[in-house]
Amino acid sequence: MIRVLIERHIAETLESAYEERSRMVLRQAVSAPGFISGETLIDSHDPNHRITLANWQSEADWERWFHSEERRNLMLELIPMMDHEEHITVLEQSAF
After folding, report:
1. Count of domains forming the chain
2. Would the pLDDT of 9 be above 90?
3. Are 20 and 40 in contact (CB under 8 A)?
4. pTM score, two decimals?
5. pLDDT over 90 (residue 95)
6. Of 11, 34, 50, 65, which residue is 20 to 30 A from 87 by alpha carbon distance?
7. Is 60 contained in some domain?
8. 46-56, strands of its sheet edge to edge
9. Would residue 13 count as lying in a domain?
10. β-pairing, 46-56 with 87-92?
11. Shortest CA distance to 74 belongs to which of 10, 5, 22?
12. Closest CA to 51 of 91, 93, 95, 96
């Protein structure tokens, strides 16, 4: 299993529109092969900073979803609402 950390920063005044669209992305990801679970968190010191932590069976499953036309089309709606490019980190469990 891997975890994918996605950080996004939403432009001022677009929070509610972003929330609606980001839920659509998560709904679609849930049905993607290899998706296990996910949650979105709000930075308590910056309410426009959103962090999504998603669990995937494998990096190949995540890559397939990340490069899918479906995700690409959904992101076309989200990208204009962000004032920074999204930052993605793929994490795996430590051997310790």
Report:
1. 1
2. yes
3. no
4. 0.90
5. no
6. 34
7. yes
8. 35-43, 46-56, 2-9, 87-92
9. yes
10. unpaired
11. 22
12. 91
Please report the pLDDT score of residue 76 as a whole number.
94
Structure tokens at 56: 């995937």
User: Tokens at residue 5, please?
Assistant: 């950390």
The CATH number given to whatever domain includes residue 55 is 3.30.70.100
For residues 29 and 38, is the Cβ–Cβ distance under 8 A? Answer: yes
Q: Are 52 and 66 within 8 A, CB to CB?
A: no
Alpha-carbon 2 to chain mean position? 14
Q: Are strands 87-92 and 2-9 parallel, antiparallel or unpaired?
A: antiparallel
Q: Which domain holds residue 48?
A: 2-91
On whether residue 96 sits in a domain, the answer given is no
Q: What is the pLDDT of residue 94?
A: 84
Q: Which two tokens stand for residue 91?
A: 């994490």
Strand partners, 38: 54
Rounded mean pLDDT, 34-39: 96
Average pLDDT over the chain, rounded to an integer:
94
Would you place residue 2 in the very low, low, confident or very high pLDDT band (cuts 50, 70, 90)? very high
